[in-house]
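Pinned message: reference record for Glutamate--tRNA ligase
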Amino acid sequence: MPSSPPDTSPAADPMTTPDTEQRGTPPRIRTRFAPSPTGFIHLGNIRSAIYPWAFARAQGGDFILRIEDTDQERSTQAAVDVILQGMAWLGLDFDEGPYYQMQRMARYQAVLAQMLERGLAYPCYMSVADLDALRERQQANKEKPRYDGTWRPEPGKALPPIPEGVQPVLRFKNPQGGVVAWDDKVKGRIEIANAELDDLVLARPAPASQAGEEGAAGEEGEAASGRIGVPTYNFCVVVDDIDMRITHVIRGDDHINNTPRQINILRALGHQPPVYAHLPTVLNEQGEKMSKRNGAKPVTQYRDEGYLPDALLNYLARLGWSHGDDEIFSRQQFLQWFDLEHLGRSAAQFDEAKLRWVNAQHLKALPEAELAPLVAEQLARRGLQADERLPTICALFKDRCDTTVALADWAALFYRDAEVPAAALAEHGVAAQRPALAALAQALAQCEWSRPGIAAALKAVLAAQGLKMPQLAVPVRVLLMGTPNTPSLDAVLALQPREKVLRALQRA
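Predicted structure (tokens):
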């Protein structure tokens, strides 16, 4: 991946620096969004950013963006770009970051070295083959597969001889008795017996290609000896949350199994855990977990498909949180109303038809001066240049549309000639009304080119030809716009150049 901005996150010693609660002062609310750039961020992911962002904004706190890019084989800069672009489009502004975990490796290794010194972690030389064999025996005995503590140092315990050629992993000395518990803001009280948790791997041996570099960088010789290696996800998260002074962790419930392990590490380092809120899964329309594998689209694709950021924010906020029966609300209302007490406990199912409906409501309410630039972007993608007519065009058609793409479909008809198949001309009676269309062309060539002037010309031709408005209006719409259905004909004609209208009528 290309280089990222330098990391400026706090680097206080988590072993010695007490958190704000320990000092007795109320902590400033600090939340974070910590995506992994191993795939393009989709709606299920971005919902996990909306709630911590909203909570920080509602409480006058800070929102931090952290890119958890330790999976270097799968992480890509393109995925990082979609995260940043998607958040910018949705207006999810962050106060700090983005911080990149790969730029903090020296920090993690320094903390690991301290944990080794203080007996909170230990090297484990059990090989992968031996660990696999242990698990097979446990499964055969119908036991839960888990590390058995062979290399865990205890008073009076004799450890096995260190095998040659085996680089150790570092394991955390998890408490062996009692429970780890927390009051989850979504799930309620959760308690896990420590006996259910084995000693978590905190770091794995560095690949041979990295060992020399890490040794040269040096953490008092630890990296060179192979004792520290590459920190694992659960450990990095804990150090990050301490350094960044995170008070509330609001994330998907796929992380809930990590929470007891992270709490134990936090407490071992002398810190109280943050408040946790684990959000239920977002399901796709087939009832499966929303994921790229199951057809989820990158969030930026919704921008390209003509959705409004406030509408998508509205829809996603409602997909797991509620404020009474309110379905449509503004960004400002959302931030005024949002709290953690009304987060839903059940999985929410994505419904694109509902999203389009929500988008249509926001599109109708958006002032034309704000809507027109968005439609102009859609027109530009088609090679069409908007002009000063566009706000009025938007006002005329926006009640018929549910996306800016649909609105641009209408607007495009004002910036190019419609292509009308002969079958459509026949279907809508253009030939039968040629005399009336010729009379209308003559009247429009002479009238004042304004909506009242055009309305008067239409009325005069209808009276002279003995026709009702639909008999004349439908052929005109088809010739000019390629469709029999438009808003009021005089309004549509007034927004077209006179020469273009006359040229269309001549095709009758």
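Pinned by admin. Summary line: Confidence is low (pLDDT under 50) at residues 1-11, 15-22, 211-226.
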